[in-house]
Design goal:
Strand content: under 5%
Order of helices and strands: HHHHHHHHEEHHHHHHHHHHHHH
Radius of gyration: 24 Å
Structural class: mainly alpha
Largest sheet: 2 strands, antiparallel
Shape: globular
Number of domains: 2
Number of helices: 21
Amino acid sequence: MDNNSIWRTRVQNFAGVLQRNKYVNTVSNGLAAGLSVILVGAIFTLINTINIPAYQNFLETTNLKALTSIPPMITIDILSLYVVFGVGYTMATQFKQDGFSAGLIALMSFLAVTPVGLLDDGATRALSFQWLGSTGLFVAMLIGIGVGRLYVLILEKGFYVRMPKGVPPTITKSFAAMTPAFIIIFLVLAIRGIFNATSYGNIHEFIYTVLQVPLLALGGSWWAYLIITVVISLLWFFGIHGAMVAIGVMAPIWTALNLENLSAFQAGEPLPHLFPGSSFFMTYTALGGSGATIGLVIAMVRARSKRYKTLGKLAIVPSAANINEPVIFGTPMVLNPKLFIPFMLAPIVVTGIAMIATAIGLVPPLIGIGAPLGTPILINGFLEGGWRVAALQAVLVVISFIMYFPFFRSLDKDAWKNEQELEEEERKAVE
């Protein structure tokens, strides 16, 4: 066996150990459980953001915009609520306990650490969407895992109210969950109190401030852009919305770069910046979304397993518009060791190629219009720099596919085997 084969075997064995880990499985399955609502949100986000003036005017004048904006608001914008329940539920079921009660307690705990504000009247309490969406995802996963595991531990130690025989199972489970719920809420309130006493104010703000401080030291140079690209994928791998963290910090710098290029273009002057941040990100780096996952989705469309083939068909249209929540959570990409390498490298490679192509004049610098989310690949490239930019995008899509395909093939093979085993078990059960 050569060195490459030995290395490949070790990596596969390590990936297998991680995938069999109950905590990793909890996150993966908990995220995947919310795929239905994520897909609804992604599709309606696309419907809502198609950048055609006549179409947008139609939505506004017919008041359809008010309706089509509701699905994203109650899915993607409060994604952490679904995730904390799903992770808490899955954590408990991993240990053969009642997942529904664990999920509810996890949801309660997440809301307990999330700040509530007052409206302008000074009396009406309101729960802001600020930490309910992808920005609260990391905290949601931590709480889901912690609460789910603590719930199991309390029940295993016998600290719960036992009901007499003959009581309906639903009532029995509810009373059994009361003791864990009271213990957990006291612990969660203690956590909230600790963070309230700090300058951060809450645990969500703490997480984001700690992540944002290193990013603030970066500027708008090419090396800073590459570092940001790595950070985005790395954060996403651990369940943190990397693009929101990084772009939220870099937005002032990147917006300024875009506007300077756009002003120069309108004045007929040479464009001052080769890599205008947000335009460059949406045009080249985020092909298909964070991680340049468009190639992965294309591979899924031709998958052997039913699971990934179906996901690929559902995700291809949103991914073509750089919306990849269905892929991130449906695969899932979070804590998925088999896709870690391409998820990290694909955006770096496509970004590097785009930078070199721009620097040597193969494609023009982007004019910085900042095409909004939902503008399809190729179209946003054409708007940003003409046919040569769109052509480079097409090449980068192929490169993304080449980078993801060998890793996805291994993942797909495992999924296909599992499906065959399940079908065989079902066939035997029928016989």
